[in-house]
Amino acid sequence: MTAIRFGTDGWRAVMNDDFILSNVRRVAWAIATYVREAHGAGSELVVAHDTRFFAEEFAEECARICTKGGLTVRMAGRPLPTPLVAFGVRQYGTAGAIMLTASHNPARYNGIKFIPHYAGPATTDITQAIEEALARAPEDPPRSGGDLLVEELEPFEPYREHVASLIDVEAIRAKHPKLLVDPMFGAGQGVLSGLLTSFGCKVQELHATRDVLFAGGMPDPSRAGLSEMARFVREDGFALGLGLDGDADRFGVIDDTGAYFGANDMLSMLAAHLVRVRGLSGSIVRTVATTHRLNDIGHALGCEVIETPVGFKYVAERMLEGGVLIGGEESGGLSIGGPHPGEGRRPGQSPCGGAVRPRGKAAHGRTG
Fold first, then answer.
1. Quick one: DSSP state of residue 352?
2. In terms of C-beta density within 10 A (0-12 exposed, 13-18 middle, 19 or more buried), how is residue 265 classed?
């Protein structure tokens, strides 16, 4: 039996090797067991997926395991970005979510993230509890048969309203910027572009179809991964290019000259902006591998800088304690004012999230 371990952001493995239906069922059983023991029978759980090969089938098997285990499942009828899934956990008040994704990894990989009820990455104690349940998992967990009845997951409009509450929409409308978005064949297609369009931007998308091979590359918004977008931005007069990874929880930015700005650059600029322009305060959290330039910036801004081990879940653990202005990691994960992807905060406001327009409604029965 395969030994399954949760790393810094869930379990990932090569499909048709360790990532096979039997192991996915065992992981789903372990997560359902944890949720039932932590939150009680009948608790709601979101099940979602990105655009990878066999994603719908993996998600359906997880849903069947969870419903057989006494949980109520919410699903969407299309791939969803991880940040939107996390927002859905908060929006519907569920006990958490199973997200099937291998993030920015090559096409041969898939993975499972568990997003707990607080809508951030699972902390170490939660992943340990899931691994302990895995040790008890049967080789062939029982699952629901026949038509799979699930609740709908439609957090799109509330997500858009939350994002609108965090930014100056009228200032964006006045500029009416021309933007290029590259979802890299991933779950972010139609999401970020729909959000920006609703705020008055003129938006075009690049690589906005489903390609389970990611055109032979990786859905990674690195400098190399966004080189084609950089050329289009420079040659076609876009004000900005925005790149997303496979499940849209990592980013890369291209300015109007075609220059690349990664996570280290954006963390630095956003920290300064939040203090000097938005008048916010709090500590800055970074992983040990993230730019130490933030130490100098924190000193200049009067913000404490806190270092964590590599992995966004460690940033999230610190953010759960409160008092954090911004946190992030060198590979493109970032959060403002809370542990939830895309969450931010204005003075006097509670944490909020971001927006999108649906391409289809959630399906009752087989998703697709």
1. B
2. middle
- Please count the other Cβ atoms lying within 10 Å of the Cβ belonging to residue 211: 15
- Asked if 46 and 59 touch (Cβ cutoff 8 Å), the reply is no
DSSP assignment letter at 8: B
Closest C-alpha to 149, from 28, 63, 59, 46: 63
β-strand partners of 334: 328
> What are the beta bridge partners of residue 360?
none
The answer to which of 14-28, 50-64, 128-142, 324-338 has the lowest mean pLDDT is: 324-338
Closest C-alpha among 137, 124, 66, 68 to residue 95: 66
The three-state secondary structure class of 10 is strand
Task: Single out the residue of 189, 242, 185 nearest to residue 215, CA to CA.
Answer: 185
- Angle between helices 156-166 and 82-92 in degrees, nearest 10: 100
Q: Please, which residues have CB within 8 angstroms of residue 182's CB and are 6 or more apart in sequence?
A: 205, 206, 207, 221, 226, 228, 229, 241, 242, 243, 244
Listing DSSP states for 135-151 in one string gives TT--SS-----SS---E
Which superfamily does CATH assign the domain made up of 11-155 to?
A: Alpha-D-Glucose-1,6-Bisphosphate, subunit A, domain 3 (3.40.120.10)
On the question of a common fold for 11-155 and 167-261, the answer reads yes
Residue of 30, 33, 67 whose CA lies nearest to 47:
67
pTM for this entry: 0.87
Residue with token string 């700005």: 261
CATH topology of domain 167-261: Alpha-D-Glucose-1,6-Bisphosphate; Chain A, domain 3 (3.40.120)
Q: Of 77, 60, 71, whose CA–CA distance to 146 is shortest?
A: 60
Q: How far is CA 90 from CA 189, 202, 216, in A?
A: 22, 30, 35
Q: Where are the alpha helices (DSSP H) in the chain?
A: 21-39, 55-68, 82-92, 124-134, 156-166, 169-175, 192-198, 227-236, 263-276, 293-301, 312-320
How far apart (Å, rounded) are the C-alpha atoms in residues 65 and 44? 13
Q: What is the pLDDT of residues 250-300, one digit of tens each?
A: 999 999 999 999 889 999 999 999 999 999 999 999 999 999 999 999 999
Angle between helices 263-276 and 293-301 (to 10 degrees): 0
